[in-house]
Amino acid sequence: MSEADALLVDATTRIFQDLCDPQTVNAATDAAWKAPLWQALEESGLTLAWVAEERGGAGASLADGFAIAGLSGRFAVPLPLGETLLAGWLLGVAGLDSPAGAMTVAPSRPRDRLTLTSKGTLQGRALGIPFAGSVETIVALASQDGANHVVHIAAKDCVIQGAPGLSGDGRDAVTFDGVVPLAIASLPDGLGGNCLTLMGAAVRAAQIGGALQEILTMASEYAQERVAFEKPIAKFQAVQHNLARLAGETAAAVAAASSAADTIHTIQGLGDAAFFEVAAAKIRAGEAAGEGAAIAHQVYGAIGFTEEHILHRFTQRLWAWRDDFGNESEWAVQLGEFVADGGADELWPLLASR
Amino acid sequence: MSQAIQFDPIRLPPEAEELRIEVRAFLAEELANGGFDPRATILTSAFDKEFSKRVGAKGWIGMTWPKKYGGQERSFLERYVVTEEFRVANAPTAAHFTADRQSGPVLLKYAPEHIKQEVLPAITRGECTFCIGMSEPNSGSDLFAASTRATPTEGGYLINGTKLWTSNAHQSDFMIGLFRTSPPTKENRRHGLTQFLVRLKQPGITINPVRNMAHKHEFNEVVFEDLFIPEDHILGEVDGAWKQATSELAYERSGPERFLETYYVLTELVRVLGDKPDPRAAEGIGRLVAQVHTLRRMSVSVNGMLQAGKEPVLEGSIVKDVGTIWEQTLPDKARSLSAFVDAEPSNRATFDEVLQYATTIAPKLTIQGGTTEVLRGIIARGLGLR
């Protein structure tokens, strides 16, 4: 993410600090904070960062978008910012314009498939779609006779069965049967049916890295303030070592996610290099999400298990994000098959090529 | 903690990748003409002075050092490529690696000019082996408890005491030793230790073998009895050795050798599981590969940040902590993943042989060069906890 524009990072950080402070959001009794936050994000061009300027977007680089995603993790942003980024990107690569407003993408699970019938209607159901119940637009990948198409759908045309998911942000079941898309365009050559899963997984890995960075900072500070047995718990070696492990997990997630984002940014096209890096990043960040959340909770003790405390805003999203766009097991099977197919003596050249 | 943990996605520069091609060609040629035996490197010994001389002739020892001392003035990222390719090829580098990584840089920084002129070029030619004299019978992780004494005498010091767990001392020409020149002070328990260059092949030094549980002779006990060391062999400040470990430590902790020591197990695991692994095996391989890729990206990143003049001390310690735990758990994961592989194919025997060896040496990986506990203390300090 070193390629990301520093001004954009600063501007994004300021918006989140001002309008999406986890403490304020957690204490809010209504959703009044949502509209000003979304408005600020839209006005700054962050929601359509990955949409070209001629299509009404900000025309930011891929690296910039991943930096925004990382920051959204750092502030546990409970709005479909990452999803809207992805939707805008997907529409853009297919040459379609992005509408205003919040969007999400489908499918988000590697085994869900949507098809486009000869009548031009959609068929299929996708589970665990983030924020489906609270967006205007769903951008989906659907196949027809082996070809992949990007479809722009009005969310109100779908049957949406709401489910809060681990984060409470919504991981909804969406039935697309009979829906007529508002626009259809084919995926360009060079992008396969896995392109959305790849980009989605890279965004989630960046968000996981950001959230882990934040809970590492929070838990380290808390351990220095919280007194037990007559001294700050940070003075206990057992607590120090737990936090050192959290630092290790955070480091691994951040390094893997940055590397995957850099690969997508540098090598356009989402080929084998991107597959390898994204798979590794989603696996390693997913593992770190589980380990890291557990350690942070252990450091915080009972207070971190309350609704009142903000820790759950991060940990529940970490758990949700590790499942979106392929969990560790799903990616590991794919990566393992890829490595096995290349053979034992090709593994090192592959690792060294990255 | 002032700054979030950062790992810039640094890639190796083109000159490093060109060098990789050269290194692979050299290793292929060595293998073809019997220059070294990878299996013997793993199972028997990684010490081969003749091999080190051939590496020296290529200019790959001390390659980041100034040309006037025999170096090549190449970057740390180029050295990185050489280190990782040699490690993965199971090439026998033990005769020169300690000097290349640690002892040479200490001499460069602290030795008087005439010693630099004498010793550094010999290291780069692969003719000169170093060992590290830190641990003692009553001072392991706690280096500042070292009690081997250096007593001033005319023109130098007399050394008395014992170093222990000194790897390769019996095959080394020099040691960089940490000796007590003054007692610690009330204010600073780290005060009073001094680093010296010790010439090992002389009277006053007795080296006794300590065989390890893999039945190898690597460790030694080194006993000093009135050994005279001339004053000009002091490295750095008298009583101030504790100040001398700053950014070198990040290099020492973050290199590829900190997660690739049992890498051969992964190669052989992929081989025995075959090109069509079942989902359980595929998942296992995928998770292991995701880990080693991440570790390598972390390690390259730290080395790139160092090359750029930054001091990623916290990040460097993290690489060693996470990396050594990974290389330690790898044999057990491979054991579990290979459980249903038939004994029939001939490659299972090779896998079993290296797995057995890696299982035996695994315990040392989180002890050598700073234990997990010490590293986590350092990381905790970096986080502002102590």
Short structural summary:
The complex is a heterodimer of chains A (354) and B (386). Chain A has 354 residues and is of the alpha+beta class.
State the strand order across the main sheet of chain B: 1-4-5-8
Largest interface: A-B, 59 and 59 residues
CATH class of the largest domain in chain B: Mainly Alpha
Average pLDDT rating of chain B? 94
CATH topology type of the largest domain in chain A: Butyryl-CoA Dehydrogenase, subunit A, domain 3
Radius of gyration of chain A: 20 Å
Task: Name the CATH superfamily classification of the largest domain in chain A.
Answer: Butyryl-CoA Dehydrogenase, subunit A, domain 3
Q: How would you write the strand order of the largest sheet of chain A?
A: 1-5-6-9
3D architecture notes:
- Chain A has about 350 residues and is of the alpha+beta class.
- Chain A has three domains: about 1-75, no CATH class; about 105-190, Butyryl-CoA Dehydrogenase, subunit A, domain 2 (Beta Barrel); about 195-350, Butyryl-CoA Dehydrogenase, subunit A, domain 3 (Up-down Bundle), CATH 1.20.140.10.
- Chain A has eleven helices and eleven strands.
- Chain A has helices spanning about 5-20, 20-25, 35-45, 60-75, 80-95, 195-225, 235-265, 270-300, 310-325, 330-340, 345-350; strands at about 105, 115, 120-125, 125-130, 135-145, 145-155, 160, 170-175, 185, 225-230, 230.
- A four-stranded mixed β-sheet of chain A has the order 1-5-6-9, covered by helices on one side. In chain A, strands 4-8-7 form a three-stranded antiparallel β-sheet, with no helix packed on it. A two-stranded antiparallel ribbon of chain A has the order 2-3.
- In chain A, a hairpin with a 2-residue loop joins strand 5 and strand 6.
- The model of chain A has no long low-confidence stretch (mean pLDDT about 95).
- By secondary structure, chain B is α+β, with helices and mostly antiparallel strands.
- Chain B folds into three domains: about 15-130, Orthogonal Bundle (Butyryl-Coa Dehydrogenase, subunit A, domain 1), CATH 1.10.540; about 130-240, Beta Barrel (Butyryl-CoA Dehydrogenase, subunit A, domain 2), CATH 2.40.110; about 245-380, Butyryl-CoA Dehydrogenase, subunit A, domain 3 (Up-down Bundle), CATH 1.20.140.
- Chain B has helices at about 15-30, 40-45, 50-55, 75-90, 95-110, 115-125, 245-255, 265-275, 280-305, 315-335, 345-360, 370-380, and strands at about 130-135, 150-155, 155-165, 175-180, 195-200, 205-210, 215-230, 235.
- In chain B, the strands form two sheets. Chain B has a four-stranded mixed β-sheet, with helices on one face.
- Chain B is globular, with a radius of gyration of 21 Å.
- Classes of the chains: A alpha+beta (about 350), B alpha+beta (about 375).
- Chains A and B meet through helix 6, helix 7, helix 8, helix 10 and helix 11 of A and helix 4, helix 8, helix 9, helix 10 and helix 12 of B.
